[in-house]
Design brief:
The protein is mainly α. The chain is built from 17 helices and no strands. It is globular, with a radius of gyration of 21 Å.
Amino acid sequence: MMLNMAGGVLMGRIVAPATLGLFNGIGLVQGYAPFLQLGILNGLNRELPYYVGKGDRQRVEGLAAAAQAWALAVGGVVCLALLGIAGWQLALGKMWLAAGWFTNAILALFLFYTTTYLQCTYRTAHDFSRLAWVTVVQSLVGLALLGLVAWLNFYGLCLRALLTGAIGTAILFLWRPVRVGPKWNAGHLKHLLVIGAPIFGVGMLYSWWTVINSTLVLKFAGVEGMGLYAMVSMASSAMELLPSAVCQVVYPRMAEQFGRSHNLDELLRPAWKPMLVTAAGLIPVIAGAWWLVGPVVRLVVPAYAAAVPAMQWGLLTSIVASFGPVCNVFNVIRRQDLYVVAILLGMAASGGSLMWLIRNGVSLVAFPQAMLIGRVVFMLLCYIFIMRMRHREQDRNTVAK
């Protein structure tokens, strides 16, 4: 988390807001592209720990091989499409745009193969410690490669993203716990689609919430505002790294537990303690960061000083995110309908708040404030739905006895 924040601050020292805004604007395609995998890889994320809990290793390897083939196929298609856009920009003589689209074409392969396939196969405590090291290595590499950015400006941003992604992919491949090759299997893919499509739908809806927010920044604040908002995204994503990691660890444990017991209280048990410890630990960290971010930014990257109030508000979303691990229950027990309701109402609260906050003029701070309001609404609804499900299960068990 600290490495990411240091890298983001130093990036602001090197790159002008408009340049960073252009690079991040092209990179929005990475937020929309995962839609094309249709949920098959989300199905793998749920089914691997479930069948590990059942002790069916053959099923685990078969599903992983089929999902790997799908990830490579979809990633290849997206890569070719983005290479076409890069070639068109090159023909028009727009060299920065051509380089940006070429970079995102290669990153699309990493997105589908590395992020959505390889990381899904890391499901045990030992695997997660390795994932942590990969994250640290990538952060160190990204920090070291800032020299390329200082030297090559926009092209340096492109090379830094490519090299960081390539190194992370190489390490994850060497350490992969499920050592199978890609193998097309229509039966396995159909199974993963049936399981994963609802998970995928709510997952994409939730991830698009952030992407849509960034798109609105680009629309209302322009490239300059998008560049300034990169500092906000850096601060919030760095703080949300810990809650995200906890959620990633807890999810397969919950699925594995459900495979053994099919009991809601037992399913929720692995989430409570790490969730509460994370929330308690983040409060003093965020309090300190709130007061430090202003002086640090104004001293180190004065060109981004206008982003300081928005950065401070962006830090607060990680507190809400720290209460998120129990929300995995909706995907484990396949009650995505409730999850969709919570997300949509949260998005509506966020959108409505944003329109009210910018009614007298666009201000960068309005975007994280609106996002925070929406996330609080979303989380409250999730907990209400979970408590209702627990009460209903307890009533059924009482009647059965």
